[in-house]
Amino acid sequence: MAAITARPTDAERRRHIAVIPCRWGASRFPGKPLALLGGKPLLWHVHQRCLEAKRLDGAIVATDDERIEAACRELGIDCIRTGEHLTGTDRVAEVAERLPADGYINVQGDEPFISPTAINDVSEALQYSPPDTFAVNAYTELVDVGAVLDHNVVKVVVAARNEALMFSRQPIPYPRGDRPKYLRQLGLYGFTGEALQHFRQLQQGPLERAEGVEMLRFVEHGHAVRMVPVLDNGVAVDTPEDLARAEHLLDQRNRGIVTKSTAPGGQLVPFPDRQLSA
User: Fold this and answer.
1) What is the tens place of the pLDDT at every residue in 138-193?
2) DSSP annotation string for the chain
């Protein structure tokens, strides 16, 4: 499948674009964006999922690393070289200064199976969110105990108004009484350009520094993060072991091996074996 790239940075203003922040020096998996999955770098798979999303006007990689930039050039993927940043969202904010759009969908570069439908859902939620919403963040229900306990999987507690109350790598809420429903925060966010610039002006708070979850910056400063439920059961690649699971999942998908799960409302949807998302 040929890559369709975003327009150059001096193009006309577009509606929503996907920005894929990629850095080389991940502590648990250095060089992760260029790790091969099915013979292609992880970032290539993420870029393809973004191109499959119907509501986007393009997709672009944002990196401060010349090796990632060179790989994008070779793959025909549009790329913007940025400065060094504390988080991926800070990197996306720099892109927003240089690439005009109504909205920016931050898609993590380690989600090779992210659902294009989930990307569309975040884009739509961003378009129709109230003016006081600073960010839109996708989430899905966790059903695997291993994933609930995994510190690489960020959990979120959602209020009745679908706003985030807290993000944590710990299993929250604590099951002291009734057994709670655990929700996984996906690395899939939507922002306006104005919200991104405000994000860069905010100081990291103690919760963000402790948890390493950037959406806590908005929460700690009292800004609304709207949570959007989506159907997504892919594998986030945080470690080399995750990459091995992703290879297995890709092989299953290529051979058409899926199981069935009941979605909200009783609709049957195909998805990979739940154990693969642990």
Assistant:
1) 999 998 899 999 998 999 999 999 999 999 999 999 988 888 999 999 999 999 99
2) -PPPPPPPTTSPPEEEEEEEEE-S--SSSTTGGG-EETTEEHHHHHHHHHHH-TT-S-EEEEES-HHHHHHHHHHT--EEE----SSHHHHHHHHHHHS-EEEEEEE-TT-TT--HHHHHHHHHHHHTS-TTEEEEEEEEEE--HHHHH-TTSPEEEE-TTSBEEEEESS-SS--SSSPPPEEEEEEEEEE-HHHHHHHHHSPP-HHHHHH--TTHHHHHTT-EEEEEE---------SHHHHHHHHHHHHHHHTT--EEEEPTTS-EEEE--GGGG-
At 272, list the tokens. 């990979």
pLDDT tens readout for residues 31-80? 999 999 999 999 999 999 999 999 999 999 999 999 999 999 999 999 99
pTM of the predicted protein model: 0.84
